[in-house]
Amino acid sequence: MQDSLDITTIIFLALAVFVIWRLRSVLGQKTGHERPPFDPVSRRETAARPVETDNVVRLPGVGPERGPANAPELDAQRWKGIAEPGTRVADGLDAIVRHEPGFDAPGFVEGAKMAYEMIVTAFAQGDRKTLKNLLSKDVYEGFDRAITERERRGDKAETTFVSVDRAEIENVEVKGRTAQVTVRFLSKLITATRDAGGTVIDGDPEAVVDVTDVWTFARPLGARDPNWQLVATEAGQ
Description:
Layout: H1 2-27, E1 57-58, H2 88-99, H3 105-125, H4 128-134, H5 137-153, E2 156-175, E3 178-194, E4 200-203, E5 209-220, E6 227-235
Antiparallel strand pairs: 1-6, 2-3, 3-4, 3-5, 5-6
Helix pairs in contact: 3-4, 4-5
């Protein structure tokens, strides 16, 4: 009886060890290098198109700094779908790559689209915390004044994104060690402003409107901080 109990116990112990081993092989175990849970605004690996993270626009796949003297050989079709060879935009993108070979222009455009939606939405909601992380000091001060004035009147802005139909890099400049990338956005929005009594005083809460904006983002090249900030805005034609 004792021998039978011992054999049964051993069998159950063996099964328990096997089950634990299988769970660890399927679920994995922590090594200190796990990727965090998916964040729609997190930076991805170089092979993927990145977007904003921590309320910023990030340069995709930033590699070690490399100056013009040892710049990588550039493929003639490197900016296909972004800029035509020999144009000012292509030349500007080349200048960025000479400093940061990991720059991914399509990924930057996708990140800029998300930043555009975040900024417009944050402005409508009066979300200064989000805006402060995304805007340069001068641009933030302008947005802050507009929000403060709106709050003083008791008005409330309502903005709903329908789509960002297009985002195109319109100009690229490298001034000293700072890159400036200008993007033209074509979007569809539902936007309206209500007064303190709830009456619509601007826009239409039921109508979809086409909006064109031209925004410029900037970032010091070679810096450890991958954050891009909005430094200029204008309404497009």
